[in-house]
From TrEMBL:
InterPro entries attached to this UniProt entry: PqiA-like
Entry superkingdom: Bacteria
Glycoprotein is among the record's keywords: no
Alphabetic keyword roster: Membrane, Transmembrane, Transmembrane helix
Entry-linked Pfam families: PqiA
Protein name: Paraquat-inducible protein A
Organism field: Cupriavidus pauculus
TM regions (residue ranges): 61-81, 108-133, 154-172, 184-202
Length: 226
């Protein structure tokens, strides 16, 4: 029942804590070691991926986020599709579609479309920018850990690719009834899906790794090992 009193609690020093990595599938603890480019570390117990060598992906991340922001701006400014039904032309933007849903008494659907295609993807891109711009200048962004958590919580709600599939299915179906002309936003949405896929392949937790001072990854002297 009682803990032995003569053994003081042995908390690992903070530097050692930084090197620990837990398997998110089975909670096994490992000590992080440096990997060669393209390598990944997997859990010995369950085979789950622990982390991968992401230096090249990290260097690409800020240009990808800026590209995604530009494509997002274009996608929301220009019409997605134009429809020509017996000489009557109509066109809509993403925001126009949200407002049309709201006007048709489908406020909940309008909110879902707004959240999953505008609000959450934009929040994630802005949070990424907020972290990556100071980090590129070797500065620590204020509130780093809260923003990383925010990115991880926002990520599952960004569903631009689901919206894209929906639009494509609708365009194909409508093309039997009216002349459908793909708008600029349809192409930029397509490009945005590809850029976002590349951006989302980077685990935001790996950003911790690039905040650490150089040399933090090196193997400690033998006396430090448990
Ligand atoms: Zn595991």
């Amino acid at each position: 029942m009682t803990a032995p009193r003569d053994t003081p609690p042995t908390a690992p020093p903070p530097a050692a804590l930084h090197r620990l990595v837990a398997c998110e599938y089975c909670d096994a603890l490992y000590e992080r070691t440096a990997l060669a480019p393209g390598e990944r570390a997997t859990c010995l117990r369950c085979g789950g991926m622990l982390y991968r060598e992401s230096t090249r992906a990290y260097r690409r991340l800020l240009p990808l986020v800026v590209t995604a922001l530009i494509l997002f701006l274009v996608s929301n400014t220009y019409p997605i599709v134009e429809m020509d039904l017996k000489g009557v032309r109509t066109e809509t933007t993403l925001w126009g579609a949200v407002m049309a849903l709201h006007a048709d008494q489908m406020t909940l659907v309008a909110l879902l479309v707004f959240g999953t295609t505008i609000l959450f993807p934009l929040s994630e891109m802005l949070m990424m920018c907020y972290l990556l711009v100071p980090m590129a200048r070797h500065r620590m962004p204020a509130g780093f850990e809260r923003i990383v958590r925010g990115i991880r919580q926002t990520r599952p709600w960004g569903m631009i690719e689901v919206f894209m599939i929906g639009v494509l299915v609708t365009v194909v179906k409508l093309s039997t009834m009216a002349q459908v002309i793909p708008g600029v936003a349809l192409w930029s949405f397509g490009a945005l899906v590809v850029v976002l896929a590349a951006m989302l392949s980077f685990d935001p937790r790996d950003l911790w790794h690039y905040l650490e001072p150089p040399g933090a990854d090196e193997v400690p002297p033998a006396g430090d090992a448990r």
